[in-house]
Amino acid sequence: MSKAKRVGAAENGDGGLMGVDESALALTISNGEDLGPFIRAAFEIGKPETLVHQLKSFVKKKEVEIEDLCKLHYSEFIRAVDELRYVLVDADELKSGLAEENKQLQEVGDALLRMLDALIQSHGTKKNLMQAIDSLNMCTAVVELCMRVNEHVMNDSYYPALKGLDNMERDFMPVLPARALRMLLERHIPVCRALIERKVNKEFNDWLVHIRSASREIGQLSIGQASSARQREEELRGRQRQAEEQSRSGSKELVYMLEMEDLDEDDSQLKFDLTPVYRAYHINTCLGMQDQFREYYFKNRQLQLNSDLQISTTQSFLESHQSYFAQLAGFFIVEDRVLRSAGGLMTSARTEQLWESAISKVTVVMEDQFSRMQDANHLLLVKDYVSLLGATLRRYGYQVGPLLEVLDTMRDKYHELLLADCRYRISDVLANDKYEQMMMRKEYEYNMNVLAFHLQSMDVMPTFPYIAPFSATVPDCCRIVRSFIEDSVSFLAYGGHIDYYDLVKRYLDKLLVTVLNEALLRLVRSPTLGVSHAMQIAANMTVLETACDYFAQHAAKLCGIPTRLVEGPHGVLAAQATLRNSQAVAHDTMIKLVKSKVDEFMNLTMNINWTPDEQPQVANDYLNDVYIYLQTIADTSQEILPPTAFYKVISGVLEHISRRILETILSEDVKRFNIYAIMGIDTDLRMLEAFADEKQASVHERVLGAQPLKAFLAEARQIVNLFTATQPDLYLNPVIRERNYGALDPKNIILIGEKFKDLPEKMFGGGRGARVAAKKKLIDALTKRLKNDG
């Protein structure tokens, strides 16, 4: 209720204050609202006692409600108080329990402390007894020590002997009570040390001779381990790629296996003895000559390294490179072991100095020897061993970057040699091919020549014998390209490039463009090329373009690139566009050769009787030869060429025939012709149009946007239609001319119209002669009109 309403109710007199305002007042107090309006109204009417009475009544009512509420929850209050009292009792019990436990702990601790004091006292007693025993046995110990030193020297245990001598000098001689024994020791200890020095140095020199001969075996074994590790890595990647391919193909039977054994080989199998080195260094250290021995070791090993880096003069580098690099690997494996285990005999700086000296000389040798090699296989053989050398020494922390850089500089030379070899092999394949469709009689032949390169046009196995659309050139060239890819990957793998797929693809494009494509174009441009050979070469080009996808996938597989990453634009070879362009050249050459052959038949048009006395009932003689040749070309090209190429060939030949027919009529050899000659040409065209309609079905849906094949006969057809039309003057109508005679040139119509002649009147009876004469007039009128318009 709003304040305005409450004030209005308070001002309505006594009756209103005693009635309506009591409930309003209770509601206002319950809501916690301001009572000002009620108080002001009570004073204004002069009856504040009434308001006070109402307020007291409200208070009494609330007190009654509170009392009832307390009575209602009385038992719960009592129960809560009881629970609280029980909690206090439990707390007191817990406190007394803790006090008891603490008391017991203190009692146990006191007992342990007393036992500890007794233990300390016992240790003190033991110490005193031991000191007494040591003092009593000192002289006996010195004598026994002397005997042990002599025994160590006799058994070549030099380090214990020196330690015994040091022990006598340091521990016993200052406190020995026997003066004669002390003087004897002072005289013989230096003599014994000199003897030990001579013996240990002789052992070390023998080790230097032995380790040089053993380094080659060490290097060969370590490089063999690197080769095995590389092979396991390749097998693991192959299984991983196979699993990915199965996963992508939706196969449910996937087998994942991780071989835990032999996944990582250390040099535990490289067993060579460094005991003489350790012993010599330790003995010289004990003698205080460690610096002299370090220098002696470094100079001798440096001399050995320089000797090892000399090229053999009795063998070629190809024969000796494995032993040469194995010797180098063994040397630095030994040095790494010495660095890690000889306790400071060699420092990292000095080892690095030896390595830098060796790597600078080795790179010069490699560059010189690589420059002399003219065989890609030899270059690959040495490169593989060098890469294994790099992998081996990288495991020991050596920087092999300069070695890999030398290999990188040889990359182009290697591929040029490889390209030269492929060029020779491809030229030999192309020269020996018969350019006939390849027949495969057995399934293994199909697998080897088609499936191996993803050349199949269907997913099911064909019936045998199977005739492929390509000749033997295609699988032979695919094998050469596949071999090139594998050799390229072999050279680029494990070199300085982590991701070398782009490099392989670049060299692959170079092979396909500069070698394979150029060789095919030379064939296409050969002056002795025949139609059948040109058609087969064009078909081969189409298949080789398709094989480019396989080449890219095969290269990616060998490079460890997932197939899904090369299925997009990244995996497309640039050579595909080049081969596609070369196909166009081959198609044009083929069409040119076909046209040339057709021209031989079309020359027979000179034998046509252009002024016959009656309408021919069959096609002219020249067309029979043309038709047979067209059928032969169409059947062959339809079988081996793609639909677009087939369409291009047939349409080009039909257009050429149409043009030749028109050129024949326009030629000076045809002085005059009559309507019967035009009817004979019409028969020829009908035969050609039937052929076009027959072949149209094979390209209708497979060549998008293709015009009907018979449309390429339009020029000859329209000239025949014009001269056989009953109203040739309709040509002058622009709409009709555009629709029915759009391919005709008015100048040609004029020239042909001037050659059109009447038939002799005696050949017709009655009105037919008049119609022929009327047609002649119409043609003359059309010719005249065209001349005037021109």
From TrEMBL:
Record Gene3D superfamilies: Dsl1p vesicle tethering complex, Tip20p subunit, domain D, Exocyst complex subunit Sec15 C-terminal domain, N-terminal subdomain
Keywords in alphabetical order: Coiled coil, Cytoplasm, Exocytosis, Transport
Biased composition (Basic and acidic residues): 230-250
Region span, Disordered: 222-250
Coiled-coil boundaries: none
Any single biological process term in GO: pollen tube growth
Domain Exocyst complex component EXOC6/Sec15 N-terminal intervals: 54-222
Domain called Exocyst complex subunit EXOC6/Sec15 C-terminal: residue spans: 402-755
GO cellular component, one term: exocyst
InterPro entries named among the record's database cross-references: EXOC6/Sec15 (IPR007225), EXOC6/Sec15_C (IPR046361), EXOC6/Sec15_C_dom1 (IPR042045), EXOC6_Sec15_N (IPR048359), EXOC6PINT-1/Sec15/Tip20_C_dom2 (IPR042044)
Location of this chain's protein in the cell: Cytoplasm, Cytosol
Stated role: Component of the exocyst complex involved in the docking of exocytic vesicles with fusion sites on the plasma membrane during regulated or polarized secretion. Involved in polarized cell growth and organ morphogenesis. During cytokinesis, involved in cell plate initiation, cell plate maturation and formation of new primary cell wall.
Family that this chain belongs to: Belongs to the SEC15 family.
Protein name per its UniProtKB record: Exocyst complex component
